[in-house]
From TrEMBL:
Main subcellular location of this protein, as a coarse class: other
Role: Part of a binding-protein-dependent transport system for a sugar.
Protein's UniProt keywords contain Signal: yes
Keyword set, alphabetical order: Signal, Transport
Annotated PROSITE patterns: PROKAR_LIPOPROTEIN
Protein's name according to its UniProt entry: Probable sugar-binding periplasmic protein
Subcellular location: Cell envelope
SUPFAM superfamilies: Periplasmic binding protein-like II
Family: Belongs to the bacterial solute-binding protein 1 family.
Listed InterPro entries: Bact_solute-bd_prot1, SBP
Pfam family, one: SBP_bac_1
Length: 415
């Protein structure tokens, strides 16, 4: 059953203790080497620190296994995914690779690239330790192919509190309000919104659609219950173009980190980005609510547009037993509590140590586990669209930002 046909409902609040134990896998032979090659895109500032913390915990618990870091730099894995696709096609898989929870994995499952790892879920009791809706997002025809290490939130508006205070502004709660503020900011020589490469534009689109159409309307775009050609969707798309007009899309170069740098420097007022921004900004020595602050992206308060990084067991992984130990690490309390405070994400597990999450992350964990919070899945980061549909959106968006034809975009992206 496809995730797109379901409503995501994440149940919070379940607290069960778990002590780590090791498994030896299903008996499939491996090459016995004490090494594990792990493929991810966590190579840039703010991301590599999280991976390093996870690896440090892994090393401590698996002193005999050397960690071979096959990370390929580039936000949202746009470059890494191309490299990985070639490796998988050439039957040269790493021992484990990063993928998002949700429909992103469907083509790899169809191609037979990944193994069903329910046996690890059974051995490690993961189903009882993870939110129900997350397990659903990881389940394809009753099988599970990856282990989640975190929960990120996509719908966030980052800003520089001193800049807003000096101008008497507070973060806009609707995109219309953002446009009003943008006019004032522009007149003062401040860029209203910084942006980066194509995937950050898609990320912004997702946040504008969510803010304008609401949680149900946004989710309906992906499960077929919202009409892309209806007036409300068309208006939201037209608004996205107007929002984009307030950005530096014409001149922006570099990945998501330089776009955030402009907010920190006070040359831009706002940036829409997931909460990996929190990790990055902390690596610059900035303090939450002093050097930077955050609000839900306009119109999406109390909604958690979630994504989850997870790791797979590829078919033909050269070092299967070591890969299993890596997956166990990713799914463990100690792994998640080492990784997430550095990564700017909250743990996927419900029984993690909340005291380890401070600053922005204390707010994030409170919202994530609040039963009143509405959960929707990210488009840009793999939850609500498979790779084929997501690529169709990418191609259509590249044209849309040029020709601004909302009907044409709806026809191409509507699926
Ligand atoms: C997302 C990923 C995050 C973060 C971000 C920016 O796709 O899930 O963990 O790495 O890209 O690179």
């Amino acid at each position: 059953m496809g995730l797109s046909r379901r409503n995501l409902l994440i149940a919070g609040g379940l607290t069960i203790g778990l002590s780590a134990c090791s498994v030896t896998g299903d008996g499939t032979a491996d090459d016995g080497s004490g090494k594990v090659e792990v493929f991810s895109w966590w190579a840039g500032p703010g991301e590599k620190e999280g991976l390093e913390a996870l690896v440090a915990d892994f090393r401590q618990r698996n002193p005999g296994i050397e960690f071979d870091n096959a990370a390929v730099a580039g936000g949202a894995g746009t470059i890494a995914r191309t490299v990985l696709a070639t490796r998988l096609e050439n039957n040269d898989p790493p021992d484990s690779y990063q993928v998002h929870a949700g429909l992103e994995l469907d083509s790899d499952i169809e191609a037979g690239y990944v193994e069903d790892i329910r046996y690890l879920y059974d051995q490690q009791h993961w189903r009882d330790r993870l939110p129900k809706g997350l397990v659903e997002a990881l389940t394809f025809d009753g099988k599970i192919y990856s282990v989640p290490v975190n929960i990120h939130r996509a719908n966030l508006l980052w800003h520089n509190p001193a800049l807003l205070k000096a101008r008497g502004l507070t973060p806009p709660t609707s995109w219309a309000q953002f446009l009003t503020q943008a006019a004032t900011l522009k007149a003062a020589g401040i860029l209203p919104l910084s942006i980066g490469p194509a995937w950050t534009q898609k990320h912004l689109l997702e946040c504008v659609l969510l803010g304008e159409l609401g949680a149900d309307g946004y989710t309906g775009l992906w499960n077929g219950t919202t009409d892309w050609k209806a007036a409300a969707t068309q208006e939201a798309l037209a608004l996205f173009v107007r929002v984009l007009d307030q950005s530096d899309i014409a001149t922006a170069a570099g990945d998501w980190q330089p776009a955030l740098d402009k907010v920190v420097a006070g040359t831009a007022a706002y940036n829409v980005m997931g909460d990996w921004a929190d990790a990055y900004l902390r690596t610059k020595g900035l303090v939450f609510q002093e050097g930077y602050s955050v609000a839900a992206s306009p119109g999406s308060d109390k909604v958690y547009d979630f994504l989850s990084d997870s790791f797979t067991l590829p078919k033909g992984a050269p070092r299967r037993r070591a890969a299993e130990q890596w997956l166990i690490e990713c799914g463990s309390v100690s792994g998640q509590d080492a990784f997430n405070p550095q990564k700017g994400s909250v743990p996927a597990r419900l029984d993690a140590d909340k005291a380890k999450y401070t600053g922005y992350l204390a707010l994030a964990i409170a919202e994530w586990t609040d039963s009143a919070t509405r959960v929707v899945g990210s488009l840009t980061h793999g939850v609500v669209a498979g790779t084929v549909r997501s690529a169709a959106v990418d191609a259509a968006l590249a044209l849309f930002v040029q020709d601004r034809d909302t009907m044409k975009f709806a026809a191409a992206a509507g699926g």
